[in-house]
Amino acid sequence: MKKIYFILLIIGQCVFAQNKVEKDSTKSQELENVFVTANRTATLRKETPVAISKITAKTINETKATAVYEIINKTPGVLMVNIGNEQHMMSIRQPMTTNAYYLYLEDGLPIRPMGIFNHNALLEINQFNIQNIEVVKGPVSSLYGPEAVGGTINLISLKPPVDPEFKFGVQVDTYGYRRFQAAGGATVGKVGFHIAGISNLQENGWMAYSDYNKDNLNARIDYNISPSTRLISNTMYGKYYSDMSGTVNEDAFNNRTYKSTSNFTYRKSEALRTRLTLEHDWNNNSSSYLTAYFRDNKLGQNPSYGIRWSPTVNPSTAKGEVNSNNFKSYGAIGQHTQKFDFLNTKIVAGALYDYSPVTYWSYVLDLKANLNPGEAGKQTVDSYEIIAEHPDSKLADYTADIINTAGYAQLSINPVNKLIFTVGGRYDNMKVKYNNALDLSSGSKVYDKITYKAGANYNPFTFAGIYANYSQGFAPPGITSIFRTKPGTGGTTAVPAEFYYNLEPATFNNVEIGGWFSLLENKLNLDYAFYYMEGKNELLNVKLADNTTDYRSAGETRHKGIEFGATYKPSKQFNIRLGGTYAQHTYIDFKLSDKPSDPVQNLNGKEMPAAPRWSGNSEVSYYPNWLPNLRTSIEWQLVGSYYQDQINTFKYSGYNLFNARIGYQWRKIEIYGNVMNLTDKLYAYNVSRANIANAQPTYTAAAPRTFVFGIQYNFSLKK
What we know:
By secondary structure, the chain is mainly beta.
């Protein structure tokens, strides 16, 4: 990797030197964009020593996404994995995973408190209320705290417009999806407001038992008390219900028999988030804000992934579960930013307090497994039926009070022209006071950590710059993992319940070097990042033969790769975007089993499953001069091959996917159409299997070719 970087750097600097004489004053427009996420304050990207990307309002508007993953996947180095009905996994400097290594923010505030991570948190987002999206890749725990390890995604909501605006639209597809959306706002005197609502409904889709509905409402009010003081209120309420069709077996996948094995599994949520922020500018060099917030979240499931079936023990029976996870949060965060003339110094400092009481329970279901014909040891399930529910046979039953406190600070200085140094640190303390009804225990656990980062930006020319940084990541185990019974214990078994009290926080150390340059009079813009990250005590899920999950937080892992992005605008009619990543995710020291009879004792040196080496998203857009207000584009999504299991015996070949989009604006009316999976490719979002001989793969099937149509009316009194 060092050799590759050295060669690229030499080539790049030669190109820079050649172009410097052509137009030294050229600046990359993208690099002048203001980012908020990276430093918790308005900062130019070229002054930020991290890999960060911004998805603009124009890109969001032209994508016309039915789910937010269609937008976020346009970011180099990011693979947001759709698992149906806006449910998702994520891969940013990590394999495709549901682990708590990503921080999801809404206007800079975490959607979930630390310790209650949910990989599906973004399904609560209202796509019709997003102004832009910022994605930071790599650990930024020194500013945003735990879980900001693989990446941080900040969704910036729409602000009240100066002039009255209103828009509404309808979107449908050929498989029973319908969406109604409306938004509007204005500013009257010192008060501005914006309201956005969305209602999704899916019925009789291409996958059996896959209906869902989602309703979201967002409201924001800005009160400009004075030119230097603002009071901002932001509230979100949403309800979601989805059938959980689950995975299909290999024969069903290859035959495109998209039949669900269950007709009783579901996921439902109800979420309320509200915040009140007071901002004040003391002068041109000094500003502060204080935010008080409240969250109320209810999540209930009969999850398809919770079905446990063993083809070798008693193949005609299985176990399922029903669970409920509810929490409330009361918190506040304050921050002050101070600039000094001396060395262009800027200091950002803040503190957070969050109190989140949570209740969780899960109980066992007895299921009947109706089998497909097959050889012994290779049988698969055609369908499951509920035989009996056991509310008194709990897999988990606890209450907990989570108290998160944190303090952070960051300093940036400009000692010499074109060189900026940044250092920062943060202390996090998560205290969990719990009562576990299953073993009648109570007590408290504390997870705390100081994390640091240090970096530098050097911009020798107006058209080129490089950066380097060292950063740390920290992620305590989620409490749903700690208080869940270990496989083979508790429930209906004769073995007393055992828990994961000894799970350790995961820590990560990351080193990266990256840069950007602009060529051909700003028509060609490129950026790149090389990273190397090591994890210790990384929380890993071991999939057992009956589809149960065993949690381990031990050993070491390594994550390294290259992220690259480029845009080329040869004329006003064409825009070409290229983005992708090459990465390797490897077990360095990880013990899988203590049993001498097991054929595999450890995973040392093996690649992590669900970790494609290559992935990327590229697009060609055409805006013809001969028909103004028409737009067209072709998008290419690449996901390379990856191992299905942890012992590296079987691979999934990955896929190449193409999408097409077209839209036309006629006066105040916009008409558009998307073709998703243009070539009708047979592919799966994810393929996995257990670490045993004769284990059968499970496929999270992806949709066949789908046509999307929409119409939107946009009204504005803007002068």
